[in-house]
TrEMBL record, chain A:
Belongs to the binding-protein-dependent transport system permease family. SUPFAM superfamilies: MetI-like. One of its GO terms (cellular component) is plasma membrane. Keywords: Cell membrane, Membrane, Transmembrane, Transmembrane helix, Transport. The keyword Glycoprotein does not apply. It is a multi-pass membrane protein. The chain crosses the membrane at residues 23-43, 78-102, 122-149, 192-215, 235-257. Residues 74-254 form the ABC transmembrane type-1 domain. This is ABC transporter permease. The keyword Ion transport does not apply.
TrEMBL record, chain B:
CDD domains: ABC_NrtD_SsuB_transporters (cd03293). Residues 6-243 form the ABC transporter domain. SMART domains: AAA. One of its GO terms (molecular function) is ATP binding. InterPro entries: AAA+_ATPase (IPR003593), ABC_transporter-like_ATP-bd (IPR003439), ABC_transporter-like_CS (IPR017871), ABC_transporter_ATP-bind (IPR050166), P-loop_NTPase (IPR027417). Belongs to the ABC transporter superfamily. The keyword ATP-binding applies. Pfam families: ABC_tran (PF00005). SUPFAM superfamilies: P-loop containing nucleoside triphosphate hydrolases (SSF52540). Keywords: ATP-binding, Nucleotide-binding, Transport. This is Nitrate ABC transporter ATP-binding protein.
Length: 273, 263
């Protein structure tokens, strides 16, 4: 086994050029463009109507044609999503720390939270509309409600998984619960917290768009449902593309924040050596 | 003012209420100031319970534990602890990990900010003693298992504890690293004014390091016998290849086998 592996190595080594073009950073673009090309070709060759499945070229045409409206609605959705998400970050972090702090609070709140999370958020929107009217507020609150849970669970998990030995070492020194939380629990839960932000931001988009679709007169959700009722299918797809773009941008931002703040948890790739 | 630092007098410790497991029963033990004591016994004999009783993490239902003449009713901060798992905090450098106890212990945390330099020097000196000079700025995950355990010992010693409790600290290391660390801990004991209680499964380790080896029975644990180990200090690793050393180890092994058979 070892002979067959090692023999070609000395001869093979000089063959590989010293400077090889690094394709890796380009891969996301190549795949994305590839997807659009296949899509375009598929639609053109099969002759499917634009009202059923518009080709990407037709969708980009729609984006340019309706750019003013798309821009306004995109900014509205980005705004409701971000505000709801920030509320979820603050609330989720606070509740996560509270739950992780005390076994009693954990035992009491956990089943309630699971039950609450199981409720489809689209069913909550009508109630929010009764309370706040249609528009921005229900969209923000729906984004908040849906993004909140993963943050709480992750922060609480980080606190709950402190090694008992670490706790013993510190408690034997006379550490109070507060000391252990500040020195160990909170730093420890940060990778979980920042990891959960990536999930939470995507969910926040789901929440705000649901609410906008059901009860709003601005935002991408509203724009898409209005376009659909006018049978403007390319515009519906344009809305989807804008959502994907916003989602990717926010996800990338969260991933960047995660990497910057908790480098020690990603040691093998970023900080080794 | 007696010479004994730790006394355990007829202690019962039961987990999980009145019908729970009796971990130790009728436990008696005395550790003199400056002594190196080792505790050996069959697995599950309550050695870790012993650790927690002495450090005040557990308060016994019956009997009396005193450390430095004070009845233990809450965690005693004159103790340092180290476990098999080094439990270094990965977001802190090795130096900051070693300094952690100073941020906790009451009499140090008030002085830490103003006298930071003095404490850092002390930590660096300790790291040098265990052979980690220059590694203070490294993160724990950049160190090998043996190096992490060395840093762990420094952390246990930084607040100058009178008593160092070690729970199988070398259990997860390879044989050569273990021997190196035996010498490290031997030299620490010789150079610092510290009493050490070492809980271990390794009889050769116990005999090489300790002044007294306490043999525990199977659960519920109590001390069956205390062996005085007479080899002259400082001991060299070569002592382990003497016939006398092997006789002691073999004797201990027989006793523990008996203790297991009884259970």
């Amino acid at each position: 086994m070892s002979a067959s592996n090692t023999t070609p190595a000395p001869t093979a080594l000089p063959v590989t050029p010293a400077k090889k073009f690094d394709w890796l950073p380009l891969m996301p673009w190549i795949y994305t463009i590839g997807l659009f090309l296949i899509w375009e070709l598929g639609v053109r060759l099969s002759g499917v109507s634009h009202t059923i499945m518009p080709a990407p070229s037709r969708i980009f045409e729609a984006i340019i044609q309706y750019w003013g409206a798309i821009q306004r609605h995109s900014i509205q959705t980005l705004y409701t999503t971000s505000v709801g998400f920030l509320m979820a970050v603050v609330g989720g972090l606070a509740l996560g720390l509270l739950i992780g702090w005390s076994r009693m609070i954990y035992a009491g709140l956990y089943p309630l939270m699971v039950g609450f999370n199981a409720i489809p958020k689209v069913a909550v929107v009508p109630i929010l509309v009764i309370w706040f009217g249609i528009g921005t507020v229900p969209a923000i609150l729906t984004a908040f409600l849906i993004a909140f849970f993963p943050i709480v669970v992750n922060v609480a998990t980080g606190l709950a998984t402190i090694e008992p030995e670490t706790e013993d070492v510190l408690r034997a020194l006379g550490a109070k619960k507060m000391d252990i939380m500040l020195k160990v629990g909170i730093p420890r839960s940060m990778p979980y917290f920042f990891g959960s932000l990536k999930i939470a931001i995507t969910l926040a988009f789901v929440g705000s768009v649901i609410s906008e679709t059901v009860a709003a007169n601005s935002g991408l959700g509203y724009m898409m449902s209005a376009a659909q009722s006018q049978f403007n299918v390319p515009l519906v797809w344009a809305g989807l593309i804008m959502l994907a773009v916003e989602g990717i941008a926010m996800y990338a931002l969260m991933a960047w924040i995660e990497k910057r703040t908790t480098g020690w948890a990603h040691r093998s790739q970023t900080m080794a050596g | 003012m007696g010479a004994s630092l730790v006394t355990i007098d007829n202690v019962d410790m039961r987990y999980g209420g009145a019908d729970g497991t009796l971990a130790v029963s009728g436990l008696n033990m005395v550790v003199e100031r400056g002594e190196f004591a080792a505790v050996v016994g069959p697995s599950g004999c309550g050695k870790s319970t012993l650790m927690k009783l002495v450090t005040g993490l557990h308060i016994p239902q019956q009997g009396l534990v005193t450390v430095a003449g004070i009845h233990v009713t809450k965690p005693v901060s004159i103790v340092g602890m180290a476990f098999q798992n080094p439990t270094m905090l990965p977001w802190r450098t090795t130096l900051d990990n070693v300094l952690l106890p100073l941020e906790i212990v009451e009499r140090h945390r008030r002085r830490l900010r103003k006298h930071k330099k003095e404490y850092v020097e002390k930590a660096e000196h300790l790291l040098e003693t265990v052979g980690l000079k220059g590694f203070g700025s490294k993160y724990p995950w950049q160190l090998s298992g043996g190096m992490q355990q060395r840093a762990n010992l420094c952390r246990a010693l930084i607040h100058e504890p009178e008593l160092l409790m070690l729970d199988e600290p070398f259990g997860a290391l390879d044989a050569f690293t273990r021997e190196e660390l035996w010498q490290v801990i031997r030299d620490l004991h010789a150079s610092q004014d510290v009493t050490i209680v070492l809980v271990t499964h390794d009889l050769r380790e116990a005999v090489f390091l300790a002044d007294n080896v306490h043999v525990m029975s199977a659960r519920p644990g109590k001390i069956l016998k205390v062996h005085k180990i007479g080899f002259a200090r400082p001991r060299d690793l070569s002592v382990m290849y003497e016939a006398e050393f092997n006789d002691v180890v073999q004797g201990l092994r027989g006793e523990i086998a008996d203790a297991r058979a009884v259970a």
